[in-house]
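Final report, Chapter 2: Outcomes

The project's central promise was a pipeline that accepts a single protein chain and returns its three-dimensional structure in a standardized token representation, suitable for archiving and comparison. That pipeline is now operational. To close this chapter, we reproduce one record exactly as it appears in the project archive, with the input sequence first and the structure output second.
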Amino acid sequence: MMPSKPRLGLFWGTLARLLALIGALGVLWMGAGWLQAPDGPLPESASSHGRLLVGLLAVVMSCLLVAWTAWRLNRPVEALHEAAGRLRDGDLDSRLDEQSAVREIREVNAGFNRMARELARVEQDRAVMLAGISHDLRTPLARLRLEAEMSVADPQALAHMAADIDQLNAIIDKFTDYARPDLPALQLVDLRHQLEMVHGQFVSDPRLSLHIDLPLEAMVWADPTDLQRVLVNLLENAARYARGEDGAAAEVSVRCEEQAAQVLVRLSDRGPGVPAAQLSLLTQPFFRGNAARTEATGAGLGLAIVEKALQRMRGTLSFENLPGGGLEVCIGLPRPAPSSKTET
């Protein structure tokens, strides 16, 4: 292995540059004497102009050297900031340069890379573990359903048992969806088409009355599967918790608002809403709000899955109580550039 080049630390490197700057200024200032004529001193006005020129030159060179030094020191910090942002968004493949000439930055980058690799390993282990648990649980559930259909004579009891088994399978699906570590490949998706497809799943559901007010073409960057999962979970949440006191169907309206960088989709219901202190807690796994919006049949992961899926698609999620009652859920998805609005 070739010997590594000597590397200066952040403190000593900065000190060396400052000393070089002071030395350069001294040389430039001493050079002012070169403006003296060989046969005698220049007139006072000429001498003053010369010293002023040298001073201005020294200031310009000092500013350039300081700017270059600040750029060299700020560049790895900016790279660390960007990598931390990607890591926060779920990109565990972020890597920083471990060959930096500054020892402190090199050590920080190496530590960050170790952390990213460890997080990736933990995520992979968790995905494998949950996949194994899902497989191991579904096998006996399938046997239970088959044995119930063959041995239970009471149709009502059989229906209740089948409903319980379906609920367990749905809960397993929720855990699997929440633990997905992969980042989707985004593509242009017609938001209105996706919403109409999801609406088809709720057409015969008496718990939900949906009104869609979207433009004919609302294109966004998204993953179709994740986007469908987001919409299904939000509508299912409204169907469960936004119904009227008399059991009437939950009325949900969907409208679209285009901004410069993203498309905002607002889903508003006329239910009881959520206490303001609990709005920031809705996406926490297994959190359940007030009794009016609590139901024991869910896994407590619906909105957590929505938030995580939107993060994977570089989207946003927010909640707001409406003045006249009800809750508004706002999801933001990246908007394509005008030249990218083509069908996929």
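Archive annotation: Residues 1-8, 291-296 have pLDDT under 50 and may be disordered.
This record, like all others produced under the grant, will remain available to the consortium after the project formally closes.
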